[in-house]
Amino acid sequence: MTVDTAKPIPVTNVCHAGLDPVSTVSAAPSNPVPACHQQPIIAIVGATATGKSRLADLLAVKLDAEIISADSMQVYRGMDIGTAKTPVAERSVSYHGLDLVDPDFRYTAALYQRMARAQIAEIQQRGRRVIFCGGTGLYLRAALDDFEFDQGFDSSCQAECQAGPDHTSALEPRVQLQQQADALGPEAFHTLLSEHDPESAALIHPNNVRRVIRAFELLGQGSSYAKQSGGFSSFQSFYPVILVGLHLERDMLYQMIEQRVDAMLEAGLLGEVEALVEQGFAQSLTAMQAIGYKELLLHLEGQISLTEAAEQIKQATRRYAKRQISWFKRDPRIKWLDITDLHKQGQAGKLTSEEFGEQLTAPFFLR
């Protein structure tokens, strides 16, 4: 295993990682733990199927930490196998950010930010370390970076939280915008945005109707897509944080994805999807777009075979992994660990599970 920085990454001391525990904090949460008593947050990031969850759990035990999930699908109840939630029996420490809402609820990055920062404050008040683990880059940046959603957007999210399971009123403006886009066509709809918000329109491709709709929504809330995008153009940490990315060479990554999908199906993913359908979540936007669920829904509807569904899940997961890698590679703060050789040894049976775990966490304690 190698680290692509000049020095190894000892996470027991933030200064060793090249971070200043004072200068990296651009703002503070309410009722924070004094900076002198805070240890840096650790964020384990990277593509799906690289072993982030296992590393986070092992580190949490060694560092007396609690884990906050940074996965946009793991917030949903009943979506366990397909989102690769760590099973309850395998959780060595307290986990947060899991099973927050039902699958028909439109959870947002703004809601996640408030939840995650509240959890950070509570965990630190208990005197414990915080470890983030997940591959949803937007959620990680919303929680850990110096970015605040505009008040209009946040109020909209709050209204949805209080609305309960019936989100007709919350979704109505979006439905109306979609109908307008369908009537005008992508190019004319984008031109309309240009007339009202030229800065945002310049950042969005005319064929990206979904993003144009989002830009109109933000205008209606007193903000703009350009303003929000600008908040993510710089990398300013909100807390002292060490970001560690797990890297696998492509062939090994694809092999791990293949194995993960097969294991999910063997563990009962189809039954999990059937249960969601029985509960009335088949037509929810979340379930329909989540990898693994939308493909198996097509199978249950008789449109594709189970074998075809499995192959589509693998293909969609590979594409998703590519998008995750592209997202995280843009962040210069991430220190990457190449764990390809370690996984090869594990696959070849040269390491026991305990030996694999020890070697996986070893770089964090080198001095």
Shape, principal axes of CA atoms: globular
Secondary-structure arrangement, i.e. CATH architecture of the largest domain: 3-Layer(aba) Sandwich
The ordered H/E elements are EEHEEHEHHHHHHHEHHHHHEHH
The gyration radius over C-alpha positions equals: 21 Å
Look at the structure and give the mean pLDDT.
83
The CATH homologous superfamily of the largest domain is called: P-loop containing nucleotide triphosphate hydrolases
| Helical percentage | 40-55%
Q: Segments where pLDDT lies below 50 for 5+ residues?
A: 1-31, 33-37, 152-170
In order across it, which strands form the biggest sheet? 1-7-6-2-5-3-4
Highest-level CATH class of the largest domain: Alpha Beta
Folded structure, characterized:
The chain has 16 helices and seven strands. The chain has a seven-stranded mixed β-sheet with strand order 1-7-6-2-5-3-4, with helices on both faces. The chain has three domains: 2-147 and 234-249 and 332-365, P-loop containing nucleotide triphosphate hydrolases (Rossmann fold); 165-231, Histone, subunit A; 255-318, Helix Hairpins, CATH 1.10.287. Helix 10 (250-266) packs across helix 14 and helix 11 (269-278) packs across helix 13. Helices cover 50% and strands 8% of the residues. With 367 residues, the chain is α/β, with parallel strands linked by helices. The protein has helices at residues 52-63, 109-125, 137-144, 151-163, 168-184, 186-196, 198-201, 209-220, 225-231, 250-266, 269-278, 285-289, 293-300, 306-329, 340-347, 353-361, and strands spanning 2-3, 41-46, 65-69, 95-96, 129-133, 241-247, 335-338. Mean pLDDT is 83; it is low at 1-31, 33-37 and 152-170. It is globular.
